[in-house]
Design brief:
About 40% of the residues lie in helices and about 20% in strands. The chain is α+β, with helices and mostly antiparallel strands and about 100 residues long. It has a single domain, classed as VSR Endonuclease (Endonuclease, Chain A). A 4-stranded mixed sheet has the order 1-4-5-6, sandwiched between helices. It has a two-stranded antiparallel ribbon with strand order 2-3. The longest helix is centred in the first third of the chain and has 10 residues, at about 5-15. The radius of gyration is 13 Å and the shape is globular.
Length: about 100
């Protein structure tokens, strides 16, 4: 099982208990294209996930376009919020409110 990285630990602490880390492999979903995906975070009691995209890591991956991943989750009936590392670093104070808006708090 993978441990959360520094950005994931910060996000977990900043968002409270409504959003919890599943990037350790505790939740796997099969996307409509057949690819299995382990999201970073799950919203408690809701069909919503949050993905944190590291600027360096995700530019090399197939889903550098977050809209493609959001669409795949949507087709499963799951809403997805994608946050880029640079977006979080630029405005850390705003992220908890952004997440609250996403989960309807």
């Amino acid at each position: 099982m993978a441990s959360p990285n520094g950005l994931e630990r910060w996000f977990d602490a900043a968002t409270g208990s409504e959003v919890y880390f599943v990037g350790d492999g505790s939740l796997w979903l099969t996307l409509p294209n057949g690819r299995r995906k382990n999201p970073d975070f799950k919203v408690l009691g809701q069909a919503r996930v949050v993905e944190l995209f590291g600027d360096r890591w995700h530019r090399e991956l197939r889903y550098t376009d977050p809209e493609a991943l959001i669409e795949m989750f949507w087709r499963l009936g799951i809403e997805c919020l994608v946050l880029w590392e640079s977006q979080i670093q630029e405005d850390k104070e705003r992220i908890p409110d952004l997440v609250k808006d996403f989960i309807g708090c």
